[in-house]
Amino acid sequence: MFGRTKKEGLTEKEKQAGIVRKIILITLAILVLLAAAAAVGGWLYISSALEPVDENSEEQVTVEIPIGSSASDIGSILEDAGVIHNGTVFQYYVRYKNEQGLQAGTYELSPSMEIDTIIDRLKEGTVMKEPAFSFTIPEGTWYEDIVQTIAEAGPHDAEAIRSKLSDEEYLNQLIEEYDVLTDTVLNEEIRYPLEGYLFPATYEFVDENASIEKITARMIEQTEEIMVEFSEQVEESDYTFHELLTLASIVEREARKQEDRPKIAGVLFNRLEEGMRLEVDPTVSYAMGEHNYMTSSEDLQTDSPFNTYQHTGIPPGPIASPGRSSIQAVMNPEDNDYLFFYARPGGEVIYNENYEEHRQVQEKYRHEWVEAREE
């Protein structure tokens, strides 16, 4: 009796399995090649977009950058003027290199210029036009007050601004456009999706009819620039940028002096690591929707996910717009062992490692707040 060869002895099922394996291997190989081709293609596209439009050109183009132009605006203006290939690539290149200080002004640029040369030139601008309107948002301002400030200075009433900034379709557009925004801001527990993301600064607009979208873009881009600046700290953190921005907003509302910001940030992180409630008064005020001078025992019972006396962990979102100093403090908190701090009316902050000492400080100085309120 003759034996069968291995190949002849294969069952139909084994043959099919072999064919499937070949198909899978071929498919994987194709996918790898496509991914590699896409990566190379993307790299080549971006590289070419960063090259001079025409390195042999001797043409000089007059380009005017209005006051209040964002990186996106500047990219569009330069692309329209024919001195760069792609305005969007320019915008992201500026963010990637963390370039700041691009100035309004009138420039003589050429299609032959390197993109880095153009960026350097844009830092030397001279303002040619006075702004049609401007407004200043102080650090620690609530969203509601920001809306009112913009309405009082610009061409749009508060109701129109509120309506636009709460429109889900518009919010999704912003989330798609800006890396700093995620679906987290649409959490139903958050009172205002853009709370904390409208960066506190002075804004000037040449166009007296600047749209709500344009105004909003300027403010969010400022926050995105901060995120890019601290991208390394965000990547190394156990928390998302949204959570860090929320903590920064608490620091902003708590600290009066610069030296206290990293210390208070350190306390907040210590409490989170210990599984303790944050128990900070500004979150209670925000939960109540009132700028309270003092927090009463009754206030502490406010039912809200923002009330850090009632809920552990970080609140659902920021309670105000923090400035750069408070964001920096959260990104680089002081390494200390404090779990408690008490702020006196004059601005002094007293730190303690245990509750008993903290209670003694509270009992000693609490009358100061009562007296200050009565004055």
UniProtKB/TrEMBL annotation:
Reaction catalyzed: a peptidoglycan chain = a peptidoglycan chain with N-acetyl-1,6-anhydromuramyl-[peptide] at the reducing end + a peptidoglycan chain with N-acetylglucosamine at the non-reducing end
Cellular compartments annotated: Cell membrane
Protein name in the entry: Endolytic murein transglycosylase
Transmembrane segments: 23-46
Family, per entry: Belongs to the transglycosylase MltG family.
Site entry (Important for catalytic activity), positions: E254
Gene Ontology CC terms, in alphabetical order: plasma membrane
Top EC class for this record: lyase
Gene that encodes the chain: mltG
Natural source organism: Salibacterium halotolerans
EC number(s) from the headed UniProt entry: 4.2.2.29
Highest taxon of the lineage: Bacteria
Family matches, as Gene3D superfamilies: Endolytic murein transglycosylase (3.30.1490.480)
GO biological process, one term: peptidoglycan biosynthetic process
Biological role: Functions as a peptidoglycan terminase that cleaves nascent peptidoglycan strands endolytically to terminate their elongation.
Coiled-coil region list: none
Membrane topology value: Single-pass membrane protein
GO molecular function per UniProt: lytic endotransglycosylase activity
Keywords: Cell membrane, Cell wall biogenesis/degradation, Lyase, Membrane, Transmembrane, Transmembrane helix
InterPro entries the record matches: MLTG-like (IPR003770)
